[in-house]
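Budget justification note: compute hours in this period were largely spent on complex prediction jobs such as the one shown. Inputs:
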Amino acid sequence: MNYQQIIESIEKDVKEFPKKVLRASEVLTGNPDYRVAKTPADVVYSEDKLKLLHYHRRVKKKKIHKTPVLIVYALINRYIMLDLEPGRSFIQNLLNEGLDVYLIDWGYPTGADRYLDLDDYINHYVDTAVRWIRSETKSKKINLMGVCMGGTFSVIYAALHPKKVKNLITLATPTQFDIDDAGLFLWARGFDVDKAVEGLGNLPGDLANILYLLVSPVATATKYIQFLDGIENPKFVSTFLRMEKWIFDSPDMAGEFFREWIRDFMQRNLLIRNRLIIDGRKVDLRKIKCPLLNVFGKNDYLAPPSTAKPLSGAVGSKDVTTVGVDTGHVGIFVGSKSYKTISPKIAKWIRER
Amino acid sequence: MNIGADLFLQMLKGLYPGYAETDLEKWQEWFQKAGQNFFGDVSDKVKGEGAEALFRSWMEGVQQALAKETSSVNSEIPDKIFDSIIQNGHLYIEFMNTVLEAAKAAHVGDATDEMLHEIYTKMTQQYFSLYQANIGKLAGVPQFGIHREAQHQIMAAIDSYHRFTGSVGDFLLKFSMPLKDAMNMLQQAIRDRDAAGDGFKSAKEIYDFAVNILEKRYDEYIKSPEGVQNVVDLVEKYLDYKKKQNIARDIWFRLLSIPTRKEMEDVYKGIYDLKKKTRKQDALIRKQNKKIKALKRKLQNVESALPRKKSSAKSVGKRRAKSKAAAKGSRKSKSPKKTG
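Corresponding output:
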């Protein structure tokens, strides 16, 4: 193909672009289905903004695994990514595998939640959810599964309350924070977090979102071109819109917790060094003796392998399984191939223990 | 209820606590008429020299509406306000012209920092004059409506806003450098491949190649010390602005008798501390209850391990017999109810 032909081809694309945009506006105003988190669940406990969800069991013939699973999601964005759509739902997959699944929905913090700190999240909210499940299911211990920042919460909880956790599963979970291969971690080290909390109170979800999008500016821009290319495929459009809904559904983050997260984790890297103190108690990862399944995405740029992998060597458990998946941060849960393989692996790992 | 009318009435009530609520409906009607008069004229007189005429026509409408209602409303105070507004209409127009000037300067981008500063100083002064002439004088508010410290804080907030918007420009410029580099690299690659007889086969191939280069360049830039500093600087400027904006906003809140941000935070802190204390007490109670349960269990074990005395066994037997009899009796007394 010579220059002339290439230029003609580009000209053709440029001419078609407005047509595609017009078509996109038609499709978008045509009420496409982008409902999320449709797997049936009951709110079995609620306190402040927290809701504890218990998913309806999907397996009737097979025996349900007796130890319940509690999923602790991050305070960034919402859990809807785990239940994106029928046929692409991490939670449905776990239910199909015969697991009894509970999930913490953190809700949307407001000014009234400005002073919530790590102690409140770990030793009160997560602990209350665990206590509720243990009491309702008569289980002495539960399986704790943490996603991203929720994984970090789960790790801390397992270290502070080892008697209540049977198995610990961490998914795309940051634990080592002094890494140099992730933009967000580098940026956070330069922030004056006290000034941020003073000026903002809670961290606005939209501000956090802008920073997440800035980490990958090219992907942020090109996905909309891909969207225009796939505009005639209703399933693609629905999935795209659901992902957008997840991305831009960003709750604010409680100010005091944000201060601790940036200062103690991002800037001082206290967790992996066993120096983190919560409510006067030291978080010693060596006290985690329960089996650990540590799953991370090999191409994850938000929680890269360098932040997730070190946990496997830091815990006191002798039963540690580390799994790197060929995908990114959200690919573990919604990637077209990986999400189908990960949940059966997790379920098998739990059943074996 | 008409929201605009309601808001206006709230303002009046705030300014004049003695305002009679019994005339609420008449005031709403008056305000709606004034509004209709104003918006009815707005379409053909909205620009340029027509603004002053429009303003005057609105005020005439307001007066007409007022005149019709004077029989039932004590018009002294509102008359004073609107007389004052009409007399000082030129101040309002001057102020709005400067607002437009400021908006133009900020968005066209042809003004220097000094020019912007001058415009904003002028705008603030005009605002204070307008406020003083209309509200300050009538409501007996001292000085220019707000005190010197408040003026200083508001100017500081405006200044930090300009610094922030300036840093957005700097940020975007620096952030676009990888894009420029990537385009240069792409052009070079096209030339090199063409010279080697291995030209791109399609526009799609060029696009994919460009995306790859861009991703690499941005990844390098974001992790580089300059890239990190660029983001940190922008966030710092934003936080500066937010901090000063909060101070200025709190001044307005205080003037309007609305709880300030700081006051709300204190309330939230109080509630939070109380909740936390309750939670700790709950946890302590749970712990104590567990201990009591464990002790009870121990006690039961010890009791059951003790040798039973004959007399006590008899008394236990008697107690059991009594309770059985009582249970029978109660069942008998209940049964008619069931059948009946």
